[in-house]
Amino acid sequence: xxxxxxxxxxxxxxxxxxxxxxxxxxxxxxxxxxxxxxxxxxxxxxxxxxxxxxxxxxxxxxxxxxxxxxxxxxxxxxxxxxxxxxxxxxxxxxxxxxxxxxxxxxxxxxxxxxxxxxxxxxxxxxxxxxxxxxxxxxxxxxxxxxxxxxxxxxxxxxxxxxxxxxxxxxxxxxxxxxxxxxxxxxxxxxxxxxxxxxxxxxxxxxxxxxxxxxxxxxxxxxxxxxxxxxxxxxxxxxxxxxxxxxxxxxxxxxxxxxxxxxxxxxxxxxxxxxxxxxxxxxxxxxxxxxxxxxxxxxxxxxxxxxxxxxxxxxxxxxxxxxxxxxxxxxxxxxxxxxxxxxxxxxxxxxxxxxxxxxxxxxxxxxxxxxxxxxxx
Amino acid sequence: xxxxxxxxxxxxxxxxxxxxxxxxxxxxxxxxxxxxxxxxxxxxxxxxxxxxxxxxxxxxxxxxxxxxxxxxxxxxxxxxxxxxxxxxxxxxxxxxxxxxxxxxxxxxxxxxxxxxxxxxxxxxxxxxxxxxxxxxxxxxxxxxxxxxxxxxxxxxxxxxxxxxxxxxxxxxxxxxxxxxxxxxxxxxxxxxxxxxxxxxxxxxxxxxxxxxxxxxxxxxxxxxxxxxxxxxxxxxxxxxxxxxxxxxxxxxxxxxxxxxxxxxxxxxxxxxxxxxxxxxxxxxxxxxxxxxxxxxxxxxxxxxxxxxxxxxxxxxxxxxxxxxxxxxxxxxxxxxxxxxxxxxxxxxxxxxxxxxxxxxxxxxxxxxxxxxxxxxx
Amino acid sequence: xxxxxxxxxxxxxxxxxxxxxxxxxxxxxxxxxxxxxxxxxxxxxxxxxxxxxxxxxxxxxxxxxxxxxxxxxxxxxxxxxxxxxxxxxxxxxxxxxxxxxxxxxxxxxxxxxxxxxxxxxxxxxxxxxxxxxxxxxxxxxxxxxxxxxxxxxxxxxxxxxxxxxxxxxxxxxxxxxxxxxxxxxxxxxxxxxxxxxxxxxxxxxxxxxxxxxxxxxxxxxxxxxxxxxxxxxxxxxxxxxxxxxxxxxxxxxxxxxxxxxxxxxxxxxxxxxxxxxxxxxxxxxxxxxxxxxxxxxxxxxxxxxxxxxxxxxxxxxxxxxxx
Lengths: 376, 377, 323
Prior knowledge:
The complex is a heterotrimer. By secondary structure, chain B is an alpha/beta fold. Chain B contains 14 helices and 5 strands. Chain B has 2 domains: 3-43 and 178-376, no CATH class; 49-157, abc type-2 transporter like fold (3-Layer(aba) Sandwich). In chain B, α3 (60-71) links the parallel β1 and β2. In chain B, α2 packs parallel to α9 (223-252) and α9 (223-252) crosses α10 (261-286). By secondary structure, chain C is of the alpha/beta class. The B-C interface holds B 2, 4-5, 7-9, 11-12, 15-16, 19-20, 210-222, 374-377 and C 18, 52, 55-59, 76-77, 80-81, 83, 85, 87, 89-96, 100, 103-110.
């Protein structure tokens, strides 16, 4: 049996590397995904285009404007003279934030009255807006604190300083809160999913299409061997991809790998159980390679969106959160982020690995049965 | 331009579409599913951040401080502890997003007017959520800190002062900062791009593969008549999608449409023309369904989703990538839609993007007409 | 450029190259109006390529030609309005019903409203598709499909019809019926240009052209070909090692031509006095055991196979000379 298997594997590999379409999926997809998620997809907010409408033009207003500029988050791109100009820039989308100092700002400040500073933010992209507001709050908050301190010193005697509470904030695993570190480990899950599901389903359907399936079935080969012969090459490719992306992530994108790489490989194996079975399953419902590809796409798309890769699962409605328990990608993402960023090991990740094992076995069993039925 | 031939072509294409269940699913079901998902399930908004508290001080002051966090809708106190290990493990397991640790001498230091540091240990792996959560925490802390000072001033001098810098943040266009308000308009644009290109990318290639194209080119039907016939049913499906999305947006999701509906549909039509022609072009060049599919997915799906600015802000991308987004037509439509929906502006503001979109459509249609030859090879 | 009023198709030195491969290598012929012209040849000889050039859907690499008086290089769109074409691969829309397919092509050929219904009924009648009017074309059996395709190609009553292997894969009875249809059309004055690799169908044509490896190696009426190309008698011989016998004996003086036919040999002798005995003896002398010798009347197949085989042999000889 091993002999036959070996020949099947060799044939499969030859076919993969001779088929330009498969080659493109195998080689181009990883590259594209790395570029996209390593560079393009980015929710970090900096270089916020800002305009200033300074009707007061005082030391204080200029001071505050300077602080915004030096924070590194805001780019002062325009000074406007009046309201309509201000609105126009926002409407056209040329700026995302506006600092508006009303006339008499400094005077009010000195007199202890409410000083009018408006920070106007473009809410079109609410996520960015929220972050922009955060940053601006920090800057104005700090200025406010300093003012209070001075006032306090004046009123209560210069030797006494007021108390204050500061938040010393430490971000674990990702000190500088770079969003890329969050996505790149997730890319491994996405990539393995795409490559193994698509290629496995297409490889099987191709044999159906060109008719060689019938030819193979009249040989003494057993269905189990056929299935193995079709899935092992892609399992191997899956592992190769995992290793490759991990290397790129660590050495090119500076993603730390704090946990055990071997654990990563083992989990990848469990993950592959699910993805390969899905690929086979898809092949049983497709008659042409093109159908297989479209069905794969329809499967991968929602699976990816609901896996916690980009949108946190905790933000989803309860029902959908329950549904994600059936999503193998969800577990593997937790595992890869855990191993790369958090440096945790089996003692923390065992629930996810168990889930993958159970899910994988069930899917494999179901698919194998269905597959044998369609073969005979 | 013979209407008899065009209507024969169009009728045939319609029959194909109606009889092909996959086209209907792709054209109608997928957009609806996407709209539902993005409106209800997929959001980056941060609320109810699970936090664990370790109050080493256990004083009135510390409890007061913690109550500020409890009162905020952004935080949910998940539990209390008395050691670091619990916090660590909870973060590792993903049970909490952050731990709040108050030092033992919290109250005393405040009394003595010495600065107090409260530790905020946040799980940074999800940078976006961490940033936002930290922002909220910082805001709460700053507000508390200022109040401490104000109370102190009152105690010392009897003067009741106001917070000196009263910054009123104003959010334009999307005051509630609901992410669905900004995602839905952009999503409509993305859906159109993907659907349009995917649907048409197969149609010409399929005819070549099956051999019916050879028959077709031996008849007197003209190239442009053939193309018009092929484009029409998909154009109608596309506009129907826009209508569906707009209606769902309004009645199901409550996304406000502030600008001109006519402009919205007008821009959609222009864009659709371009996107459909792009799909046809792919089909004409590849003559092979499988390849057409792959190419369509590669050139429309990924760019539309990632680079159009519908979910990931273009300003945050590296400069090089920002230049690349100019090649993604969906980018302009997303900008237009967001402008019309949320900002309520019209052509006088959006003329640049509208113009570029028109250019795209004209270029695509033109290329398709030129490239389609009624010849083999 | 209008050519003879007699000819529906004129072709001069037509060449088609695909990269390094020359599919059609300088062929010239005419097809008279109203005749049934057959293009014969094995697979890959360039028949389909030629027909596609004539229909205006493939541009020649070199050479000139006219179809229905229109130039095949510069007036292809005009050609398409005046011809009907049936491609080798079945090319009607399988998920459209029979009626929908007919309606579609009616629209494309702009059949006037008053005539549409009549023409549709004519096609359905001619193809015996009354029971299948509303059925998807994909489920039709082979013979009916081909007839429907023919019907759609003549909806607009073209004077010139191009049929590329219209009966391939069709059983003999339906082939017969199909050719009856072709005759009907021909009787109405339609010129029919048909390619086929069935030699029995070739006998049905007014004139024939034999294509081999892109070259026209013979043309004429079936009778002309049979008489011109066979001078002499044809003998069918069953012996042992027929291949060796063929190679050994081809240079013998009495033997004009010797070719392999399945497991037998067909020998053409020029001398009227040759007898079975003479042939038997000839073979025996050279060490071959003879099982049977019989005189047969030459068929087109004999002629063509002979032509092709001798062409092969001369090509091989050329190769060897080069070496």
